[in-house]
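Input set for joint prediction.
Command: fold jointly, output tokens.
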Amino acid sequence: MSCECFKGSQWRAGISTDHQSAADLTDRLSGSGSKSPRKPQRQHFDSELVSFTSYHCSLTSAPKMAGVRALGVLSRFTSRRYALYSGATCRTFSVAPAMLARTHVNYEVKGDVAVVRINDPNSKVNTLSVQMQKEMAEVMDEVWANNAVQSAVLISSKPGCFIAGADINMIQGCNNAEEVTTLSKEGQKMFERIEKSPKPIVAAINGSCLGGGLEFAIACQYRIATKSKKTVLGTPEVMLGLLPGAGGTQRLPKMVGLPNAFDMMLTGRNIRADKAKKMGLVHQLVDPLGPGLKSPEERTMDYLEEVAIEYARGIVSKKIPIHKVKGSMEKIQDYVMSFGLVRNQIYNTVQSKVMKQSKGLYPAPLKIIECVKAGVEQGPVAGYLAESQNFGQLAKTSESAALIGLYQGQVACKKNRFGTPQREVKTLAILGAGLMGAGIAQVTVDKGVHTVLKDTTVSGLARGEQQVYKGLNDKTKKKNITSFQRDSILSNLTGQLDYSNFAKADMVIEAVFEDINIKHAVLKEVEAVVSPHCIFATNTSALPIKDIAAASKRPDKVIGMHYFSPVDKMQLLEIITTDKTSKDTTASAVAVGLKQGKVIIVVRDGPGFYTTRCLAPMLAEAVRVLQEGVDPKKLDALTTSFGFPVGAATLADEVGIDVAAHVAEDLGKAFGSRFGGGNVEVLKTMVDLGFKGRKSGKGCYIYQPGLKTKEVNPDIGNVLEKFRMKPNPAVSSDSDVQYRLVSRFVNEAVLCLQEGILINPLEGDIGAVFGLGFPPCLGGPFRFVDSFGADKLVEKMRQYEAVYGNQFTPCQLLLDHAKDSTKRFHM
Amino acid sequence: MASMLLNTMRAGSVSPSWAVRLGARSLSTTAQLHAQVQTKSKKTLSRPGVKNIVLVEGVRTPFLLSGTTGLLQRTGLSKDAVDYIIYGTVIQEVKTSNVAREASLGAGFSDKIPSHTVTMACISSNVAMTSAVGLIAAGQCDSVVAGGVEFMSDVPIRHSRKMRKTMLSLNKAKTLGQRLSLIGSIRMAHLSPELPAVAEFSTAESMGHSADRLAAAFGVSRVEQDEFALRSHTLAKSAQDAGLLKDVISFKVPGRDIVSKDNGIRPSSMEQMGRLKAAFIKPHGTVTAANSSFLTDGASAVLVMSEEKALAMGYKPKAYLRDFVYVSQDPKDQLLLGPTYGTPKVLERAGLAMSDIDVFEFHEAFAGQIMANLKAMDSDWFGQTYLGRKSKVGAPPMEKFNLWGGSLSLGHPFGATGCRLVTTVAHRLQKEGGQYGLVAACAAGGQGHAMVIEAYPQ
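tokens >
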């Protein structure tokens, strides 16, 4: 039974994802080759480099999710970081002045019910900041002291947010682990008083109720949530390398049972209101209302408050039971859980699962298990103590700093720093209905944008439209949307073989075969039919945009938009601007990307831009490592144990050996011997033998449909034998191989910053993690340099340089940082 | 239902000396007709070039909670004065998908009279009537029978999709082996039937659920709803007792007694109603069985003619059917706000103000829905934000509103309610001496209808 419960509880915070989606993804990738009816020439490049990172990256999608969920956890900075008020001290405060001074929490007595309203005046979301907690303590003391009040309702004044979590700055502001532990203890104390409140408190939840917000809510006696889509409950702390530090690890297991509690805390996933009701996380649901005498949002909040007051009174008069009657299944579960043996089995299962998926690189999930175990097995005193101490320790780990950095970077990359474009893109035309084109259509059409999908053949178009349909239908199956919504979304998609609707298009994104001549031809055809304001975006992974724009009559309207495959799963969008690209064009491209839900980095033009350029040297090194006699399985193990979600050999197979060869050759021409290492001929020979990677069934591995385990392709031994290189024992230890791979990646990233391809290190980190699967626990190449030490890295590179030459020559910027240890990419 | 159609004809009050009237008519000109109208205090809505279309008569069966299984009675009375028959229905019986045709044949109408069936949820019979108006205005017909029919106690219940699929494949199966294996594939789950639900296809939300949310959106309390429901029952009871519900005709339920009264009118007390639990949003909802309309069997029909034809045939028309509109809006959050959208639109078309209307008949789907509509019409914010008006529509005065009860008390056979509303307006205008009446109704799919009716000069 326990195993059953864990099906969904894959730990995703750092690097891993559940097998299901990985399998899904590989399906898609392989689909592009074997099942796709598209013309063979197309397969080769249009799914391209993009997919390079694809698989890889989907796995890293977790921290970003964390970001979305923890939304607002960061918010405004506060310099005050000393301990919170413990409620008792405020008791003596006189009411009036305190009320006047309050800005975050207020209350109003309606009959015998106190309605406590939370509203952070400085932010779109409520966070449990120092100020918020202080005022909350004051207000609750007044509520408890007021004899006319029998019960209380806790509600936010912001329609989209209950409480989005604790204030990250408050945690980051602490100097050491002890201070954070104190912070946690104060939180625990506060919520304990809420839990033991003599007057029942009803939490009325509309919008996000996350992290500390959820911990607050579950300390209340009763919870009512709106069925709105915006209402989500969850504990995303794990995605920031933390744990629920205000009683969450202790209360959740009691409330929803061990398996569910582990699932919530280890995945950090959001739970929708209806699911929360089933799990026993909330007691009642309230339907969101339409317009009445006020706007739907306002009226829904009022209604929620009215209903909550009704329930608060019902609880006081004992008409409404606080504890729900347990069903027989729950009783059985409780009974089973009463055996220490069963519980131990659960701890072990969870532990091994976490170890398997995190490779032990992420401390937070292990600490969560530890806290839960302490609470359940040794009682609340030990449990709360473990929670606060572990919280303090985790807050000061480099993993947590890296994950928080990623989260903050992701928030920054969800803003349009180029301003509002003059024209909103209402009609988007996409050229090429391949994996990429259809993927772009898929993430566009459901955002209310009229989407035109054009291909040259009926079969190609049909495949593309089917992909869009399947994507939406999967959402329907998961009940994210209704079948009616699916159909109405699809009505916004126009599939066609000619340019007939292009005159209406505000933007055209081409996703055709990666060949400069074809791109030129397409550009000219498009410019002949579109209106003058229409933007031409090219989805290429390596061809320089300025070369493509050379054929344009209006190069200011040409821009690069590099999507990652599969588009609906990968969050990153790399936008490439040339010197001629206008600011408005950039603003418009960013606006479209944001609408599509992407995290966006904007980089300057150059061969391979940023992402492809960083990955190519690493793959070149990987080929050399293979040539030196390292088994593909071993290579994979080395890379994954470093924190990459997908091993280098598997990645090459997923990308396609042909694609990798093509890119290696192109960039090798552009950058010379620095991009050398492994022999390109290895890849070419493999392609000649038909080992194109997963799509052809054979690459570094052999892929058999229906078989999950994969074996190394025995034939590549011969190929590698042909190109065998003698490893130098001085630089061939496991650790050296790892650093050879990573240092080339990192050096190239720093060089991109040095050359101005990258605007700032933050975008470099985001691009590497979300686009290429750079280990999230390291926070990206730039954060890695900061935490590892530029001097140490340079030292290692010099050692490799001595053996292999200029491929390991550190760039100037890296040398500068190595010389001066106060120089850091991130403050 | 067939008897219904016949009764429509019978009930038409034919003047005893129609020949005389006919003679008179030959003398009277259009001008004279107008002169008659002008004696009224308010101006008529008659417009040059637009045909006057009149309601000659309207009848209905009593709306019954249950018990009717068939209304078809064969009679031999031939009626070839009717040019066309249109019927509205909502939940269609598969065997009689064009129920209008079957009914007219069953009623013994000439088989030369074409008939068709229309559907637009709760306003299906309104569509039947306005289609009739359209046919007459276009000069296609002179007299049309329009009506609505619903058999809620015998709705088609389908096999589950899996079972249907198996049964269809069974038809195609060629060998015994194939058949046996198909039969063997039937599982218990296949046998559970599919009931038609009163739920929106687009949102999968039941209408009661939506009504509850609508009431909450407009802050309509449980007490307000119960009071309105009580009002409806009380008014219906007194109207019934006073014999005002003249449109009801008796009919014989096979195997049972003759039914001649609506059997859903049950004036209760606020206490009794207050004890009921919420029916849709549990437990804190406000819509209960007592403040919702109940679905019944029932049929209604009206005879619509051009004024000339009616007079020529010696009928005494009851009312003019004037402007009408159909509206539609968001099927989720504004599912039942049709009257709010339709009323100002139809008034504008007719060039009338709210104060010109003497008789209001709104379809009472739910007490909460009526109250929400009244509040929406009385809200400046709603008028400005959603109706694109400068100010509010204004709520109809309660002393003119649904004075003989409504769907809450009389019942609501989906397809048949529209004709009842129109007939009631005509009868109330006659009884109360008013000139203009307004019918408004909401329907599933977020649609609505409103029609202005003018009294026929007495």
